[in-house]
Task: inverse folding
């Protein structure tokens, strides 16, 4: 009887070991199949989208990525890039706010940094006013400061020329600017792919990176009388603080552009960067970007 019991135990142990080994093998095969499976591409509301790995330049997602569309205030990424590309640019250089800048935002019903005529604001502060509240007055001030010419109109035209020259230097064939802020005259356009490349170039500049990842800021500016006031600006990019690893970049909107967003995030050393153009609402452009980045991080 004892021998029989021992025999049964051995058989039972052997069977258990065999079953366990089989389960491990099956589990391992299942795991490798799951790892090998590519996540389904996201469905986005925006008419155009593009996403790439910013480290390798590899394309991760496209939807009508080379169709030219209005860009709204995502244009201001190029405005900032042109400023920061100037040789020996002095971020502490002061710009006196002109009445023309405030008249412009009133006439265009444009987004504003609420700059006050006569205040002296540094170039660095204007970049915050440009990129966080999307100030068209700040864009005008920068174009006036960094364009060349004896009149304001000539300087603005010169600055827009620099924007187009920079696009050409980046070999962008589907991008053209006719404004410093995205309020164009019918010839201000880009594509999801091109805008992503502009943003990728801009994000290589440490000042630009610092500005666009800032959720809010309070800046001390000099008043006309020599005193000072504080300007408070909040970033319109809702991804900051709501999406893990988000680092920027810029919102945009307009009657033709609808809702646009250029975005970037870094997780575990991997950076993805992309664009959605012509989405249907603020909420949808943010949701589109999140879906695309989630997808990009899994690929």
Result:
């Amino acid at each position: 009887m004892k021998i029989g019991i021992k025999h049964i135990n051995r058989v039972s142990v052997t069977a258990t070991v065999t079953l366990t080994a089989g389960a491990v093998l099956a589990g391992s095969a299942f795991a490798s199949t799951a790892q090998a499976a590519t996540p389904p591409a996201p469905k986005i509301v925006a008419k155009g989208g593009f996403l790439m790995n910013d480290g390798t330049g590899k394309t991760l997602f496209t939807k009508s990525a080379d169709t030219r569309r209005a860009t709204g205030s995502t244009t201001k990424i190029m405005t900032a890039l042109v400023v920061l590309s100037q040789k020996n640019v002095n971020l502490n250089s002061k710009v006196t706010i002109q009445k023309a800048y405030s008249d412009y935002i009133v006439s265009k019903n444009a987004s504003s940094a609420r700059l006050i005529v006569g205040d002296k604001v540094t170039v660095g502060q204007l970049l915050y006013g440009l990129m966080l509240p999307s100030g068209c007055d700040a864009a005008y001030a920068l174009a006036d400061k960094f364009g060349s010419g004896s009149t304001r109109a000539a300087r603005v035209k010169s600055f827009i020329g620099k924007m187009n020259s920079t696009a050409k230097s980046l070999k962008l064939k589907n991008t053209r600017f006719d404004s410093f802020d995205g309020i164009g005259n019918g010839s201000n356009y880009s594509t999801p792919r091109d805008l992503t490349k502009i943003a990728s170039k801009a994000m290589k500049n440490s000042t630009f990176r610092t500005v666009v990842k800032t959720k809010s800021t309070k800046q001390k500016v000099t008043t006309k009388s020599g005193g000072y006031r504080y300007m408070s600006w909040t970033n319109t990019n809702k991804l900051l603080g709501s999406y893990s690893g988000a680092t920027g970049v810029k919102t945009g909107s307009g009657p033709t552009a609808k809702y646009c967003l250029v975005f970037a995030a870094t997780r575990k050393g991997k950076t993805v960067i992309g664009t959605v153009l012509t989405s249907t609402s603020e909420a949808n452009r943010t949701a589109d970007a999140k879906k695309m980045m989630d997808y990009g991080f899994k690929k």
